[in-house]
Amino acid sequence: MSVTKSTGQDAEYGDKVVAVEPGGIEPVAVADKHGKPLQLLWTWASPNLEFATIFLGVLAVSAFGLNFWQAALAIVIGNGLGSLTHAALSARGPDHGVPQMVLGRIAFGFRGNALPAALMSLMAGVGWFAVNSVSGAFALNALTDLPVLLCLIIVVVVQVVIAFFGHNLVQAYEKYIFPVLAIVFAVTAVVIFSKADPGSVSGTGGIGGFLLTVGATFGYTAGWNPYAADYTRYLPRSVSRRAVGLYAGLGLFLSTTILMFVGAASMTIGGTGTDNPTGTFTAHLPAFLAAATLLAVTLGAVAADVLNIYSGALAFLTLGIKLPIAWRRAVVAVVYGAVGFVLAWLGLSDAGHAYESFLLVVSYWISPWLAVILVDQYLRRGTQAQVAPLLFDSRHSNWAGFTAFVAGLVISIVLFANQTLYVGLVPKLVPQVGDLTFIVGALISGTLYALFKRALLKRSALKQPR
Question: What is the pLDDT averaged over residues 437-456?
């Protein structure tokens, strides 16, 4: 085991796999940079080759009332939007060498960035971690008949150990598990599609169900956006930005779209359900393939959650809380693993409904956050040298970004949210609209930020480092 401290200048971590990644959110040392853009294909495909992805396709038909073809179109739109934005954010990692939420300080200011960083930290290190741990535990339970709680403990321990070591071991796991997951799910997809009857489900969800599906799929795929630069910051600055964005976006889009199609198709087969959603899905498969798929679901859940714990820990450190220990990122990862385990344990009894609500809530804050980040990125294009000093400058303030984000978040939720616990004013009056929160939030925040920055253009220019 190797434990080192990175100053951003001396190379001591490099491409070592079985070594605890030092430090926290400091810029990656030039000599530590390594890798190629192609690796992003499996970095983002592997964590989505799991049952949580399939289950979203299931929800599109069973919960949102769409037929297969309606679901397929909604899935393509939601995943396409989330993958495009993911590509754009991933391309910035090699230049600055810092995590995605640190880059957010440019648009939101050092202190204003604390709110989206906190939301990201909770979403990844606790929320998504719990969701995927539950799906992995159910799969292992269906495969082995071990108690579900014991299965959950096994899955969580493996996830935490990998995330504890850090970036290089996480990347290595995604790389070597990718062919296993790809082969198993490819065969599973062929079997499911051969049995499916797309015309057997008429679809009664209407435009409301369609928009709910778009929002949920966008929330799922764009939910990875706040992680984007975390896994490109170690790439050399000489790599092609176009290749970085292409492989990151493609890995995300192909894996999520294909498996969501499989989930939607499985709902057109029929059959007897069980209390275990993974067991219900694999009941359509031959015994040997069902066992292989359950194993793949477990391994895929681990692939997703090592990213969740790792990036959740980085987001926590972005809050500015100082931990005077060399293993600060690793220690935070263990703490999040423990908290996520408790939440997953409590959520075992109502996984399906909790997952549906969680996906929509994710899209609520991701959309306005993305809008501000992308507008800011566009307005600051070609000024990389000028913005770099802002990343760790506690005096840097950008009230326009924070204000636009909060305004878009609050207004869109109050008016358009459509949840069990809260229904916005518009869905109450016109139930057919479904849930437009993620669209409205993005439009409000993006427009407000563009207007604010235009009004303050001269003042902002004076504050930029020369």
Answer: 91
Domains of the chain are 37-351 (1.10.4160.10)
Q: What pTM was computed for the model?
A: 0.88
pLDDT band at 360 (very low <50, low <70, confident <90, very high): low
Residue located via tokens 């959650």: 305
Residue 198 vs residues 24, 188, 209, 222, 261: alpha-carbon distances, Å:
49, 17, 17, 27, 11
- Euclidean distance between CA atoms 292 and 274, whole angstroms: 19
Tell me which residue has tokens 């309606």. 70
Torsion sign across C-alpha atoms 253, 230, 88, 398: positive
| 418 vs 443, more confident | 443
